[in-house]
Amino acid sequence: MPESTTAVSEPEEAKAYQETRDLSAFEDGLAEPVEVRRNVTISVRFSEEEIELLRARAEANGGKVTAYIRAAALQQAAPLDRFGLIRTVEAASANLATAERLLRERK
């Protein structure tokens, strides 16, 4: 992508990179070569407020919104321990029943 004085949008940058694989036009130190060929696109719609929030978060992390969304989407959450959750709810329910009984006895 040759240097120019006009602003280039993210889609234009992406298209130029896809065509040339040239990172020289990107800001020094921020560009990282893509080692995985990404050829699947998923379209997601955001409200104006949501996209502004995503842009602000991406900027705060020093990256682009697409990279921020990809990283957020690929973060692995710990699997839900359903049995542990059930035990916790049952224990909390038993503690609540005990507390209610004690309060009734105090009256």
Structure, described:
There is one protein chain. This protein is mostly helical and 107 residues long. The protein folds into 2 domains: 65 residues, no CATH class; 28 residues. The chain is built from 4 helices and no strands. The longest helix is centred in the C-terminal third of the chain and has 25 residues. The N and C termini lie far apart (79 Å).
Cα Rg:
25 Å
> Total number of β-strand segments?
0
Structure classification:
mainly alpha
Helix content: 55-70%
In N-to-C order, the SSE pattern is HHHH
Largest sheet: none
- What is the number of domains? 2
Q: How many helical elements?
A: 4
Large-scale geometry: elongated
The share of residues in extended strands comes to under 5%
What's the mean pLDDT score? 80
Poorly predicted residue ranges:
1-5
End-to-end CA span: 79 Å
Task: Walk me through the topology.
Layout: H1 10-20, H2 48-60, H3 65-74, H4 82-106
Helix pairs in contact: 2-3
Structure described in brief:
This protein is mostly helical and about 110 residues long. It has 4 helices and no strands. Helices cover about 55% and strands about 0% of the residues.
Please give a handful of descriptors for the protein shown.
55% helix, 107 residues, disordered N terminus, mainly alpha
